[in-house]
Amino acid sequence: MSTNKQYTWWLKAISGADEVQARRFAGAIALEIGWGGITKVKELTGMSHSTISKGIKELKTSEKLELSKRLRAHGGGRKKVEEKDPRIINDLEKIMDENTSGDPMSLLKWTNKWLFAISCG
Fold it and tell me: The dihedral of CA 83, 86, 88, 93: what is its sign?
């Protein structure tokens, strides 16, 4: 039996959980696995090491887990720069135009301009 196959049900449960529940569940899985559990859960779920560690800490310190007072809404968090200012792409292309090289037949491009020079552009 494949090692990832044995975690199929856990991964399915995490995918349907909200952010706080998923963190706590991932922490519980890591504790159950034991040594190397955080790394294994990180590989399986894509969650960060600190998120899983926070879930473990919540499980170990709380006698009874309380409902989270604050939970981000779906799509919450910082907006992309392109959404805030749609002109940013054109502005960057204008700055980079003279110092950009690449294959005209592909999307691969590169520059020899330093980040400082770009930011002062």
Answer: positive
